[in-house]
Design goal:
about 475 residues, mainly alpha, Fumarase C, Chain B, domain 1, Fumarase C, Chain A, domain 2, two-stranded antiparallel ribbon, two-stranded parallel ribbon, 6 strands
Length: about 475
């Protein structure tokens, strides 16, 4: 039996109610649903649309309910909205009937979803900001720590740990910016007062309702307000892209932790061992984080697949996207905290990295560029000469290659040997964004300023919501 359908349809099949009910998923938005109802009732009272005595009784009951929401989930109902009305009717009797005046589940559920999405996106931004701060600090400590970089997973050029960490920081900075934009210009808009699809004859002030809940604006068109979930699909797309980006970085660390590479020392808390092989140290936290990138894609695909063929106007299909959005946001927030903990305690192995740099031909491109520019030889010709020498000698000894090139081209060997020293290579690269330690220091300082600005914006948002500011 359900509350809404009784007058028109009579009893419902328990199997059908169980199949179509969203009660379990609604546990995650129950507080926001109650907040929306409180704002609605306060507005009805202020507009003199319902008896104030009845309205105040409803508000008191909602306040009590907000402190013990478990009561709602003992009720058999289609969703949390129906469960609340049943609870209020059982508590207050007929006076509870003033609650639904001028509202629909359609505009109220999307309002609660927007509020919940807003809170979780802000929480996600907070985790990103803390991770960015840590990356900047670690980069500052590793301005000259050498790191081989690869293309096609083949070692290619010399870089530094600072350069690598700041690549992650800039990526996260971009996600911070797009999440701020999505939050302010897309999510933070009120659908309240839109009714089921085309508004209501009850003289609700939609702007005032938006202010009561802290929304920055309105979704103006009532059809768009209740039947669209674009704010969900866009948010999910961004969060999925973030999760995929993190999974790629996790893959780097998994590779670098292997005995073949041995570039990093992972924190032991992120490792697990084999049930059979006592020597194994598996970087399981990064493996799960890498897997999360794939799971995130699945949640996004589910959201888009549900939405794509739903006709305009509210349809119950839309209730099914909620669980995927919330799982995306909650798991991504958790992934960011795990990733930050890993970065905090992992260490790069300086000695191993220095040996790697000496072992492979990582400065040969810089050598070819030097010969081309200093001795006025077209680069394509220089490229061929260097490649032919490498082929002829069959060695990865850069010193031997320098000597052979000096004989073949009639140029000074000492000049070439000086050029290929790792510290000289880094200092010679003066293009913005390169691992040149001096330029990287400037990049870090600029990133600190940008982070401060983003933290200030975050502080204003959390103060507005009355939640803990962890950006400081």
């Amino acid at each position: 039996m359900t509350f809404y359908r009784d007058a028109l349809l009579g009893d419902a099949s328990n199997k059908v109610v169980s199949f179509t009910s969203s009660m379990e998923e609604d546990r995650l938005i129950v507080n926001e649903v109650i907040d929306v109802l409180v704002a609605h009732v306060k507005h009805l009272i202020s507009m003199e649309l319902i008896p104030p005595e009845s309205g105040n009784k409803i508000l008191t009951a909602l306040d009590n309910l907000s402190r013990n929401t478990d009561e709602l989930f003992k009720i058999s109902a289609e969703d949390v909205h129906e469960a609340i009305e049943i609870y209020l009717r059982n508590t207050l009797g007929g006076e509870a009937g003033w609650l639904p005046l001028g509202r629909s589940r359609n505009d109220h559920v999307v309002a609660a979803l927007r509020l919940k999405t807003k809170k979780l996106v802000i929480e996600c931004v907070g985790e990103i900001l803390k991770l960015r701060k840590l990356l900047i600090e670690k980069a500052h400590q590793n301005l000259e720590t050498l790191l081989p970089l690869a293309t096609h997973l083949q070692l290619a050029q010399i870089s530094t740990v600072a350069h690598y960490l700041m690549y992650i920081e800039e990526m996260l900075r971009d996600f911070t910016n797009i999440l701020y934009y999505t939050l302010s210009d897309f999510i933070d808009k009120s659908p309240l007062g839109s009714g089921a699809i085309a508004g209501t004859t009850v003289p609700i002030d939609r702007f005032e309702l938006a202010k009561l809940l802290g929304f920055k604006g309105l979704v103006y068109n009532t059809l768009y307000a209740t039947s669209s979930r674009d704010f969900i699909s866009v948010t999910a797309s961004i969060i999925t892209s973030l999760s995929v980006a993190l999974s790629r970085v996790a893959e780097d660390f998994i590779i670098w932790a292997t005995s073949q590479f041995n570039y990093i020392e992972p924190p032991s808390s992120h490792l697990a061992t084999s049930s059979m092989m006592p020597h194994k140290k598996n970087l399981v936290s990064m493996e799960v984080l890498r897997a999360w990138g794939g799971e995130a894609i699945g949640h996004l695909a589910a959201i888009l697949s549900v939405i794509k063929s739903v006709p305009s106007g509210y349809n119950l299909d839309l209730q099914e996207v909620t669980k995927h959005l919330l799982r995306l946001l909650l798991n991504s927030i958790e992934a960011l905290t795990i990733f930050r903990d890993f970065i905090k305690y992992m260490e790069f192995k300086d000695k191993v990295l220095n040996e790697e740099v000496q072992k492979y031909l990582l400065t040969v491109t810089d050598l070819a560029e030097h010969i081309s520019m200093k001795y006025h030889i077209p680069y394509r010709d220089t490229h061929k000469e260097v490649a032919s020498v490498i082929k002829k000698l069959g060695t990865t000894d850069i010193n031997l290659i320098c000597f052979e090139l000096s004989k073949k081209l009639g140029i000074n060997a000492e000049d070439l040997l000086k050029v290929v020293k790792p510290e000289n290579v880094l200092r010679t690269r003066k293009v913005v964004g390169s691992p040149n330690p001096q330029l990287m220091l400037l990049t870090i300082k600029e990133s600190e300023k940008l982070l401060d600005n983003d933290c200030s914006r975050y502080s204003a948002l959390v103060e507005e919501l009355g939640i803990l500011n962890e950006c400081k």
